[in-house]
Amino acid sequence: MTLRTGHIGLNVTDLDRSLAFYRDVLGFGVIAEGKEEERRYAFLGSLAGDGRPVLTLWQQAQGAYDKARAGLHHLALEVDSVDRVGEYETALRDYGVDFAYEGVVAHREGSASGGIFFHDPDGTRLEIYAPSGAEGAPVPSATAPTCGFF
Question: Can you give the pTM of this predicted structure?
């Protein structure tokens, strides 16, 4: 048996704010939502897909994401082209998102893959990348993977 990721669960401080970001900016569909005051959550995925959640949001965090604590390092989302990465970059800039680097960057020196690195409303580190098309894009560090230290 080979394990594969079923879905990613993120704790958030404000479900309404996070839903607006993941639904309206990143384009996830809401598959299911729990609205009890002390048990708010949302299952997100593709409404055109198989109905399986890709991302779950749980309103139970007391503070913002802290990269110094053990747990999730970052969430990487793949798209089919660097042009599509650019479309997301535009939408995220319009939304006022905080970016780690300016524009599309390569994953490492000489890499064809690359993307954009940014933070969600709670500060969780996110990446949208394409597996090819970033040849010649800048590399923030020549000695470490781009996604490792943002």
Answer: 0.92
